[in-house]
Amino acid sequence: MTDAPEILPIPVRVRPEIAALPPYKQGKQASADAFKLSSNENPFDPLPGVLDAVNAASALNRYPDATAARLRERIAERYGVTSDEVHIGAGSVSILAQLVLATSGPGDEVVFAWRSFEAYPWLAVLAGATPVMVPLAPGARHDLAAMADAVTGRTRAIIVCTPNNPTGPIVTQAEFDAFIAKVPADILVILDEAYAEFVTDVDAVGGERILSRGAHPNVVVLRTFSKAFGLAGLRVGYAVGHARILDAARSTAIPLSVTAHAEVAALASLDAESELLERVEVIAERRDRLVAALRDLGWAIPDAQGNFVWFPAADETLAVAERFEQAGLIVRPFAGDGIRVSVGEEASVEKVLGIAASVVRTLPEGHVARRLA
Ligand SMILES: *Cc1c(COP(=O)(O)O)cnc(C)c1O
To answer: Is any atom of ligand 1 closer than 6 Å to the C-beta of 165?
Structure first.
């Protein structure tokens, strides 16, 4: 670990809450032989059909279709909704930003679990709103009862991340149903299902199920092509929900940020969905094997339903991450809390297990990351 560089003052007046944000930090560059397990990317190469579609979309001198109409129609068909009830973004993170901006300003509150996706607190602050971070329950799961209790007259949006990035567990349908019954109907609830395709737990909440019931027009479901569909580099995700909520999001969007290449790649991926979902199954099986082996080694690994596993290394986080990195495994440490490791290439799994086996023996007796014998 190198010392943090000196932070220079900003020469112009910047909103104080923005100036207080930590400066952007360059991620670790993976050396050629390292496994990059830090961003939950799909380890498989793109399908040839998807690459062909991208190559064929060659009119680089033209702007894309501003509304990604073809992709919206295609997704609308799948969900049995109108295309106005679908919104495409340059990654679902950009739609998250739009929804927070559209609903929440200074004095308003955005409620979400913590620890969860790193972007949530930052998006709330960017909108000028106040993040309300509700601690996870034991098992690194959402505490939806506490989240419902955290709602005040100032709450404008609630984000539910399932499976939770970075810790892994899902929210169950029963938990979500009990929660949504308690939330005032004029508060936006964003169900962030970035990893939905990897879920194998039949009790998991399903965005499609909630939308099809039609009982909760305040719920917007977010999905992405970045993870299961392997298009992280092209930036394309979508929201499904009430047309007027999505209109509000569209009003805040930076125009034309979804490229024609991203749109055709997403369409081609939907054409090749069964082939892509076979790969997702391979990763889910690899994940389950990894979790079982880590638990056998003595690690207290929470349920993992995405394409990543969580090591609750607490105060040992940076030291353990260093061990992974020395072995050529780029992982994502969250200082003082834990380490997220993506389920990558098959060859990376053995290496992860090797390091995890040697590290677990060095953890003090009774450490939270160790399973009770
Ligand atoms: C990866 C991720 C997203 C979306 O990523 P995009 O690449 O912007 O589509 C959204 N939410 C969570 C929790 C994620 O982990």
So the answer is: yes
Domain-located, residue 366:
no
Q: Which of 271, 290, 318 is the last residue of a domain?
A: 271
Q: How far is the CA of 195 from the centre of ligand 1 (A)?
A: 8
Q: Is 117 in the pocket of ligand 1 (CB under 6 A)?
A: yes
Q: Quick one: which atom of ligand 1 is closest to the CA of 90?
A: 8
Helices within the chain (DSSP H only): 16-19, 48-56, 69-79, 92-103, 119-126, 144-149, 173-182, 207-213, 243-252, 260-271, 273-297, 317-326, 346-360
Question: Is the pLDDT reported for residue 1 higher than 50?
Answer: no
Give 232-279 pLDDT, tens digit per residue.
999 999 999 999 999 999 999 999 999 999 999 999 999 999 999 999
| Residues in a beta bridge with 161 | 192
Q: Say if ligand 1 is within 6 A of residue 232 CB.
A: yes
Question: What is the biggest distance separating any 2 CA atoms in the chain, rounded to whole angstroms?
Answer: 63
91 lines ligand 1 (CB under 6 A): yes
| Cα(93) to centroid(ligand 1), Å | 6
CA of 12 from ligand 1 middle (Å) equals 32
Taking CA atoms only, the protein residue closest to ligand 1 atom 6 is: 91
For residue 111, what pLDDT is reported? 99
How many structural domains compose the chain? 2
How many CA atoms within 13 Å lie on the side-chain side of 49?
A: 11
Residue 359 has pLDDT above 60, yes or no: yes
Residues 110, 29, single domain; the answer is: no
Residue 30 to residue 33: CA distance in whole angstroms: 8
Task: Name which of 2-11, 234-243, 249-258, 326-335 the model is least confident about.
Answer: 2-11
Q: What is the CATH number of the domain that holds 54?
A: 3.40.640.10
pTM for the whole thing?
A: 0.96
Same domain, 263 and 296: no
Ligand 1 centre distance from Cα of residue 165 (Å): 9
Same domain? For 124 and 144 the reply is yes
C-alpha 117 – ligand 1 centre gap (Å): 8
Q: 227 phi and psi, to 5 degrees?
A: -100, -80
Token reading at 97: 């930003």
In the predicted structure, residue 80 carries a pLDDT above the cut 60: yes
Residues 226 and 242 in one domain: yes
